[in-house]
Amino acid sequence: LLDLLEKNKEYLNGNSNDLDRFLKDLDPRLHSLGYLYALHARIDHSKSLSSKYENFLHNFELFCVHFSRDQVVHCQNKFYKMLRSVSEWLLNAKMPQRGIRSFVYAIRGLAEEGEVTPAHQDLAKLALKSKCYGMVRSVINQNQYTVNVSNTGIKPVDMLLYNYYRGMLFIGLKEYGKALNSFLISITTPSKVLHAAAIEAYKKYLLVSLKLHGKVIPLPSYTPPLVNKFVKKLTTPYQDLANAFSKYDIPKFAAFVEKHQEKFLKDQNLGLVNQVRTALTRRIIQRLTSTYLTLSLQDIADKALLASTEQAEIIILAMIEENEVFATIDQKHGMVSFHEDVSQSETEHLLGRLRENMDSVLSLLDKVGNTNLDLAKSNKYLIKTIPLEEVALTEETTAAGKPTQKP
Fold first, then answer.
1. 336 in Cβ contact with 295 (< 8 Å)
2. Residue 330 pairs with which residues in a beta bridge?
3. Which residue in 59, 120, 289, 403 has the most C-beta neighbors within 10 A?
4. Tell me, what's the pLDDT at 406?
5. pLDDT tens for residues 273-320?
6. Contact call for residues 79 and 38 (beta carbons, < 8 A)
7. CB-based burial, 177-188: b 16+ in 10 Å, e otherwise
């Protein structure tokens, strides 16, 4: 059937205007391959959609929800090319939200557990453009540990861009730890050239790192050499911010923000920079807890360069609520008492997270073990790693059914 469809691609392309009526006679559950080829031909000639795009989108949504995996698995490359064409059309038509539900179903229906496909990048971009971050939470929360280059046609740039977009989605969801990890994957994706998205990912990585940890977490040893060589030179304003933050110098930090405001705005990072400014104030207040047991709100406002004691109180209350500091406020006398305390509920929450992470690590170890086993059996891998004379000896042994002595 695939051969027949390939031979008739030109016929489908030449009659793309009539394919909507043709699709009405097909059932996506039973005729998934024919449906796929017809949709691909239709979107490749999207200029003819004009006012009839509703029919196409209806057929596309129907296919993504009901297609047969047993059929489509034999032409995944075609499937993901069709999805890429649809995502580009939706973005150009300024209707990104219309594709999100369908793309989620498409990924769930075909991708293996933990597999990253070209459609992941497309879905993340659609979600960003439409600002529908929550609709893709189930997809972006999945761990990534496998790709299938030969079947899906995924490229390193797809991984790089997906994790860059994924990091921005997590920022939108206020899940900054996951955002940091996503940007790191984007930055460290192997590449022979320096991609602009890797630099943009590093800028956000630096800012999120400062917000979460109060310092820039160094890049790992497996970071591509080109990234290590140029990333700091290409992000000078961000390095200046990090240096000011490390010295807890609020005036200097504010001066750099004002100096490079247009740059941060152009990079769409000004909001994140302002969050880092707030984080710097909180870090200064946290440092006070290691020096003082009791401090007045006025002293805190002075040391953190806040406008008033009321602002200091608001920030401290927020920090107490988020377990960033443990303190009590005496509003009558305007005093704050700092103390060490971890509530029982917080301890139970941390233990629960630890158990979840342990289960995830054990599952990942099983996957890595299976991958190593498959790799050890791969002829291509063996040919590249074992000396040629040993490969020849192995082949002779296999053919003869017994060891062959070297001369």
1. yes
2. 335
3. 120
4. 44
5. 999 999 999 999 988 888 888 889 999 999 888 989 898 999 999 888
6. no
7. ebbbbbbbbbbb
212-215 long-range CB contacts below 8 Å, 24 or more apart? Answer: 212/176, 212/177, 212/180, 214/245, 214/279, 214/283, 215/242, 215/245, 215/246
Sheet with 327-330, edge to edge strand ranges: 294-296, 335-338, 327-330
What average pLDDT does the segment 70-85 reach? Answer: 92
Q: Are 325 and 319 in contact (CB under 8 A)?
A: yes
Backbone torsion region of residue 243, taken as left when φ is above 0, otherwise alpha when ψ lies between -120 and 50, otherwise beta: alpha
* Measured distance CA(186)–CA(162) in Å, rounded: 8
Contact 144, 105 (CB under 8 A): no
**Which two structure tokens, joined as six digits, stand for 76?**
């995944």
User: Of residues 353 and 17, which shows the higher confidence score?
Assistant: 353
Q: Which residues of 328-354 are buried (b: 16+ CB within 10 A; e: fewer)?
A: ebeeeeebbebeeeeeeeeeeeeeeee
Q: Alpha-carbon distance 405 to 407, whole Å?
A: 6
Mean per-residue pLDDT for 100-114?
94
Can you tell me which residue has the tokens 């705005």? 265
Rounded average pLDDT over 10-27: 67
- Written as six digits, the tokens of 94 are 């300024």
**CA-based nearest residue to 193, from 235, 230, 165, 163:** 230
> What is the Cα–Cα distance from 261 to 268, expressed in whole angstroms?
10
What is the predicted pLDDT for the residue at 343?
56
Question: Can you point out the beta strands (E) in 220-343?
Answer: 294-296, 327-330, 335-338
Query: Average of pLDDT values for 168-176?
Result: 96
Token pair, residue 322, equals: 């988020």
Write the pLDDT tens digit of every residue in 222-273. 999 999 999 999 999 999 999 999 999 999 999 999 999 999 999 999 999 9
Q: Which long-range contacts (CB under 8 A, 24 or more apart) does 264-267 make?
A: 264/237, 267/200, 267/203
Give the CA angle between residues 147, 143, 365 to the nearest 5°.
85
SS3 183: helix
**Pairing label, strands 327-330, 294-296:** unpaired
Q: Round the CA-based radius of gyration of the chain to a whole number and report it.
A: 28
Q: What is the pLDDT of residue 367?
A: 74
Size of the chain in residues:
407
